[in-house]
Amino acid sequence: MATKIRTERRTDALSKARIVEAAIEILDSEGEDALTFRALAARLSTGSGAIYWHVADKNDLLAAATDHVIAGVTADAVRGLRPQEVIRTLALGVFDAIHAHPWVGGQLSRNPWQDAVLRMLERIGSQVQALGVPERAQFNATTALMSFILGLAGQYAAGARVFPRHTDRSAFRKAFLETVAAKWAQLDPTEHPFVRQLATVLPEHDDREQFVAGIDLILAGMESVQ
Amino acid sequence: MATKIRTERRTDALSKARIVEAAIEILDSEGEDALTFRALAARLSTGSGAIYWHVADKNDLLAAATDHVIAGVTADAVRGLRPQEVIRTLALGVFDAIHAHPWVGGQLSRNPWQDAVLRMLERIGSQVQALGVPERAQFNATTALMSFILGLAGQYAAGARVFPRHTDRSAFRKAFLETVAAKWAQLDPTEHPFVRQLATVLPEHDDREQFVAGIDLILAGMESVQ
DNA sequence: ACCTGAACACCGTTCAAGT
DNA sequence: ACCTGAACACCGTTCAAGT
Fold first, then answer.
1. pTM to 2 decimals?
2. From the candidates A117, A148, A202, which should be mutated to test the interface with B, based on the most B CB atoms within 10 A?
3. What residue ranges define each of the domains in chain B, with the CATH number in brackets?
């Protein structure tokens, strides 16, 4: 009997992994709106219907792409750190992933039941437990952290939707924030005193620092309650 | 000269207010996906192009609808309460609005630069100020509260997308949570110990209580930091 | 000024037909 | 088993034409 010969139909045969990879390339380089089955099929040199053999629908595709990105964050085990620091590290990992792939933010906040969120929940929850939060408070504490993270995730995704693709994002971001700040500065002082004050710090603020500050606020709340 | 006679072209003349009202009716009764310009035009007995005379595009329409709902929350001034309680009341007002109009949740978290969010920011920020949070920490504290609220907003909107319209939402919700809990309970105990534990409390948990607990956690953090 | 509704340029998804 | 690509049933938006 002849030995089984590897008969790869072609080197670039379609697979869910290859489809997800191509989808991520489109999402990263051209933004959420650019991901269509037609564009994806063209990039993969196949018919649009072929994709449905490997992927249930667009939701499935986006969930798989999000999962692929978040898996890189939840995979690295952090050892020898205090629970607070593990939580901070995990959260910052998610933050950086969203910063690199803004569409992930929208996807996470739009679909909280996907695997990526489940894994974040597990990792963060176990640290909340390690922190000594009483059992009946662990649910609320963990989901509060998750909601905060997903809330900012959605906002960064919204921010990315504003900026043109293929361009220097940070420069456009700064210009955009300055426009918003200028608009806020012109609001009625008696009606919007606080937002007017925010306008003065808005353009210079650091997203990452703001994010950590929020995490620390919730962590401080957890410590004071237990 | 003849006195000016009110010559309303017809009682049901189109206006942005009427369009927004009809849009909210569709969104509430049939869900986000059911709001199309064709459906809206049919309900208003007009052509789909006519709507564009009063509304810039679909984004503008959704922002106006969201604004209309949130205006009802940020309008009522709360007096004689401690800042913590005002924040709790405001946040719960937003929560209840989202509970009544789940599509508002998605809209708020998807578009953080709209007027509705600005007004929430002003009301919450002024209370953070009244709480005695030092000025340089007010920005981070207020946006942390906002992110938490918007995060949960997005999640409730996602939840509503799962349930069929026109039906007893709370019954379907319970059934859905039980399905999720059952799936979580079957996860690998060594890999997902925390989520398996969450599964036992998931179906019985109270969204509103969970929401308040998160707000209180952040408030506690603000007190311990100042 | 405001409205009509056909037309345009797209979508996601399906499915008979191929290999 | 896997792929092709035309066809279907939609979208948001535009715009010549009407009143």
1. 0.91
2. A148
3. 12-55 (1.10.10.60), 56-225 (1.10.357.10)
